[in-house]
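Hey, resending since the last one bounced:
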Amino acid sequence: MVEHAEAIIAGAEEANLPVILQISQNAIKYHGSLAPISLATLACASEARIPTSVHLDHAEDTELIHRALDLGYDSIMYDGSKLDFAENIATSKAMAELAHSYGATIEVELGEIGGKDGVHAPGIRTNPRDAQSFVAETGVDLLAVAVGSSHAMTSRNALLDFELIKQIHELVPVPLVLHGSSGVSDVDLQKAIRSGMRKINIATHLNHVFTNAIRGDLDADPSLVDPRKYIGSARTQVSQEISRLLKTLNLE
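The structure tokens again:
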């Protein structure tokens, strides 16, 4: 939704900190087309008063990555985590070369992170040595790792393996990415950053804020019919939470 992009940018502007707008492959399927939601988000980013990147998230479809780069995405995530190690390396390397030819950055995933599309794998962990060789062989810019978080959590009680984060950080020369961050408390997100995490992905938590705001407004006034009146309020609450989170996670 465009309101998400607007809320995230407004919150980042209030915090005066850069931000990444992420559109997932699943979100594109929901909208039925890549271009409309992408062009609207890219337009929002272009008018932001703080540095704003537009990122294609969890893309398994390599053709979709081509089209996103053609539209102007400056960051992509190729998700080959379901492939075997050798095939993941080969395809990730090809996608890295493609992204770099556009001047874009590329993130990949090693070690399936639980919760995606209903898959729950809490015991999965990224092997530090595998991570080291994977990055060296593929030339990618960021690495998403499995360290205990899980996608789509509505509670914030995930247990991260901080020692594993430190081990991977010591061996891997590119920024580490934490997916499933909605399930992690503020304190543990700060600890994860201190341990070596550099990109924190938050979606479900913000959806929770957005949805709760809409529920509250509609319950309070059942006569509301103009979506702008209740979506606008939800957008404001999300922007406030974005500002708070950015300030909380900016440890410099």
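The chain has ten helices and seven strands.

Sorry for the duplicate.
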